[in-house]
Design goal:
The complex is a heterodimer. Chain A is α+β, with helices and mostly antiparallel strands. In chain A, 48% of the residues lie in helices and 20% in strands. Chain A has helices at 18-34, 47-62, 67-81, 114-127, 142-145, 182-226, 232-239, 272-278, 287-295, 306-309, 315-320, 354-415, 418-453, 465-482, 502-519, 550-553, 576-586; strands at residues 84-93, 96-103, 154-162, 168-177, 247-253, 259-267, 299-301, 323-333, 336-346, 461-464, 486-490, 497-500, 525-533, 536-543, 591-596, 600-608. In chain A, the strands form four sheets. A five-stranded antiparallel sheet of chain A has the order 6-5-9-8-7, with helices on both faces. In chain A, strand 1 and strand 2 form a beta hairpin. The radius of gyration of chain A is 43 Å and the shape is elongated. Helix content of chain B is 66%, strand content 4%. Chain B is built from five helices and two strands, in the order H-H-E-E-H-H-H. In chain B, strands 1-2 form a two-stranded antiparallel sheet. In chain B, strand 1 (73-75) and strand 2 form a beta hairpin. In chain B, helix 1 (3-19) crosses helix 4 and helix 2 (24-65) runs antiparallel to helix 5. The chains are: A alpha+beta, B mainly alpha. Chain A binds chain B through residues 27, 29-31, 33-38, 122, 125-126, 128, 138-141, 144-145, 155-160, 162, 166-168, 176, 179-182, 184-186, 189, 192-193, and chain B through 2, 4, 7, 10-11, 45-47, 49-50, 52-54, 56-58, 60-61, 64, 74, 106, 109-110, 113-122, 124-125, 128-129.
Chain lengths: 612, 145
């Protein structure tokens, strides 16, 4: 054999070997027999040279980075052995159909644009789709040849990119600079096959990564939603099946620091036996989980991890019920162990590897955040509940002594001799006023506690609206006259009745009218209007007061919010509008405010009028 | 119709004349034998996977004109005829003759275009030099004298 000489790029190897001579002779023979003989120059390739080039191609593919950089490198290596003046690849990747064009040495025998349209036609034929990835018209072999005329010196080879299961997912087209022979074709075919495997594996990895990202995204969404749907772990565990496991369960660190299994464990369809086994006493052993929780380090068990996997109490029993591999990941947040999640792979799944562990650890990180948030939310809710209970308790306990004080001060005022009354009157009036304020505050706190606990009740009966309004106006008449305000009621023509809790609706009206009187300067107008609107009673309290800034409008019904504390020295409990909203909502209505700063406000509410 | 397809058709016609198939069973035997020969020769260069993908597409497109060809299945070692053989009695011999002529020509045409005609002479020779007896079995099909 002649030792191959170093060649220029693109130059063919001219070494002659005996086998090739016989082969070419045969090719000439059959061409004559078939009647399609072409003027093919006798060229021989050195198979060993081609093997060297193939080795180079495989090294490039082993370092596969991305198609735009790897494919041209592969084609450049191919053109060292088989002269190519151009090539193109079209394939279906994880992100759609991609097309890459490559220009080699020499003149491309295809006119501009023809290579693109031809590879698209070849792709359509071989991979069964249009170049846009749309469902294809039925492909025809005419797609491969329509309108394509090559000059005599050129060869055009098109080969499918074949993936798993013999499925073609693309096509590669190579424009040979000169006539190619069967050895060239074999070499090119091997290269295309290797490239197809590399592209297919890459597409699978990308698809797996996309699935992982989607899994994590869906998991995060579910964990966020779980805040209103219940405890995190029982909701999270089923989400891990079947993407990460065939069966799984979770343990959480309880108050005493011990691990506690969180029910229910969850198994995919077909793994109910495993689920039942998971609940048996022997498999409830949490030794592995305890070690993971304590160390914060995940573990993977399978036939390669001999000790635990051959442990007769857990490992062997798991294998008996069809578990092929087990992964335990810790739930840790702010350095504090919260629990573990155990993932079990059945016979149909490959044993867990480092890719599974990576996604499981990321999953565990997100679950741990949700668990921590859940614990913080529970602590906060408990604190709020405790505060409300204390407030309600204090308010309730204050009411009785306040009543006694109120009665006692009235009696004292009445029994004080006239001679002493003038001197004592001022102090007795201060005591009475303070007691009324305290009574109002205590009543507000008790109503608030009822609303917060969901125990607020109303007793509805039929009442004339005008009667409720007039009583409320009368309650505010004195205060209005002291500020020289006009207090006005715009009555509708029809007499209206409403099905409501009279005292509570009057409480709302007194609150709204009281605020209007409080925040309207002397000489202003406070007006109340009501009418029927679409099966509801609509009541509005309108004033010509200072108004409310737009930034505060959506906060006025919040608990303890108070805008007027600094206005005219008035100060309330900050509970009036909050309680009013609770009362109206308990009636099935709604309450809102419109306001212009400096011009006044309009508080409105609706109550279903109760008419059939 | 392009020139190369005409050449393929001429070869296929010559092969059909030599093979002398008239009954449906014999035509099916002819088709099976011819596809086996073409597969056997082409796989030396293209390998099972690449060839399987190409043949699969040829059968798929051919089944538009001859739906019963859709029952042919491409496996790792060639084409499986079991399903088509079970249905052959329901196919008119003239229709089967046209289908055989069409699909063999189509396969030669597609392989020719995909391989820059490199395999065409060998495949033609494989077809024309085969000896077909009255009954077809693997042992009685020879690719060359």
């Amino acid at each position: 054999m002649t030792t191959p000489m170093l060649r220029r790029r693109g130059q063919r190897d001219r070494d002659v070997v005996g086998d090739n001579t016989r082969r070419d002779s045969f090719i000439r023979h059959v061409r004559t027999v078939s009647g399609v003989h072409k003027a093919v120059p006798q060229r021989q390739s050195c198979p060993y040279r081609l093997l060297s080039n193939l080795d180079e191609v495989d090294q490039i593919l082993a370092r596969f980075e991305n198609p735009p950089s790897t494919i041209p490198a592969v084609l450049a290596a191919v053109s060292e052995a088989v002269p190519l003046c151009g090539a193109s690849v079209m394939y279906r990747g994880s992100d759609g159909v991609r097309c890459l064009m490559w220009k080699g040495m020499g003149d491309d025998p295809l006119p501009p644009g023809v290579a693109e349209s031809h590879i698209a036609a070849a792709y359509r034929y071989l991979a069964g789709e249009t170049e846009h990835g749309e469902s294809a018209l039925r492909p025809s072999s005419k797609d491969l040849t329509a309108g394509l005329k090559l000059p005599g010196h050129a060869s055009l080879i098109v080969l499918p990119l074949v993936g798993d299961g013999g499925r073609a997912f693309g096509a590669m087209q190579l424009q040979g600079d000169g006539q190619l022979d069967e050895t060239d074709l074999t070499f090119v075919k091997i290269v295309v096959s290797h490239l197809a495997i590399a592209l297919d594996e890459r597409a699978k990895r990308e698809a797996e990564e996309q699935q992982r990202q989607k899994f994590l995204s869906d998991l995060t969404t579910s964990l966020i939603e779980s805040r209103s749907n219940g405890p995190v772990l029982p909701l999270a565990v089923p989400l891990l099946v079947p993407f990460l496991a065939d069966a799984c369960f979770a343990d959480e660190v309880s108050e005493n620091g011990q691990l506690r299994r969180v029910e229910p464990g969850f198994a995919a369809e077909g793994y109910q036996t495993l689920l039942a086994a998971m609940k048996t006493e022997s498999l409830m052993t949490s030794e592995a989980q305890a070690r993971v929780a304590a160390s914060g380090t995940p573990v993977v068990y399978d036939e390669r991890s001999s000790d635990a996997w051959t442990d007769p109490f857990v490992g062997l029993k798991l294998q008996e019920v069809g578990v092929r591999s087990m992964m335990v990941v810790p739930l840790v947040r702010r350095g504090r162990p919260l629990g573990t999640i155990t993932l079990l792979a059945g016979e149909s799944r490959r044993p867990y590897d480092e890719r599974d562990l990576a996604i499981a650890e990321e999953m565990a990180r997100r679950v741990a955040i949700a668990l921590d948030d859940e614990a913080r939310a529970m602590r906060m809710e408990r604190a709020i509940r405790d505060r409300q209970e204390i407030l309600a308790l204090v308010a309730h306990d204050l009411r009785a002594p306040l009543s006694a004080l109120s009665i006692a001060s009235s009696v004292l005022l009445r029994r004080t001799p006239d001679s002493d009354r003038r001197a004592s009157r001022k102090f007795l009036e201060i005591i009475s006023r303070s007691l009324r304020q305290m009574d109002h505050l205590v009543a507000g706190l008790l109503d608030t506690a009822s609303l917060d606990s969901g125990h607020f009740t109303i007793r509805k009966e039929w009442h004339p609206v005008s009667s409720i309004v007039e009583d409320a106006l009368e309650m505010q008449a004195l205060a209005a006259s002291q500020k020289a305000l006009v207090l006005q009621a715009d009555r509708p023509d029809e007499a209206m009745h409403v099905y409501c809790d009279r005292d509570r609706i009057m409480q709302v009206l007194i609150n709204l009218l009281g605020n209007a009187v409080k925040f309207t300067p002397s000489g202003g107008l406070v007006k109340i209007v009501w009418r029927r609107l679409a099966g509801e009673l609509l009541v509005s309290v309108i004033d010509t007061g200072c108004g409310i800034a737009p930034a505060h409008l959506n906060r006025v019904f919040e608990r303890y919010w108070e805008a007027g504390g600094r206005y005219h020295g008035s100060r309330g409990t900050g509970l009036g509008l909050y309680i009013s909203r609770g009362i109206i909502e308990a009636h099935g209505g709604k309450i809102w405010v419109e306001s212009d700063v400096g011009k006044g406000s309009r508080f409105s509410f609706t109550v279903p009028d109760g008419q059939p | 119709m392009n020139d190369e397809r005409t050449v393929h058709e001429n070869v296929v016609d010559e092969w059909l004349t030599r093979a002398n198939g008239s009954s449906a069973d014999r035509l099916l035997d002819l088709l099976e034998a011819s596809l086996r020969l073409i597969w056997s020769r082409a796989r030396r260069t293209l390998g099972d996977r690449t060839l399987g993908a190409v043949v699969g597409r040829v059968l798929y497109t051919s089944s538009e004109a001859y739906p019963f060809l859709g029952t042919l299945r491409v496996g790792t070692g060639g084409i499986r005829f079991d399903d088509l053989r079970a249905e052959v009695d329901a196919i008119a011999p003239t229709e089967l003759f046209r289908a055989v002529r069409f699909v063999v020509t189509e396969l030669l045409d597609v392989l020719g275009h995909l391989t820059a005609g490199i395999l065409t002479p060998a495949l033609h020779a494989e077809l024309l030099t085969a000896r077909f007896g009255a009954k077809f079995g693997k042992a009685r099909i020879g690719s060359r004298p």
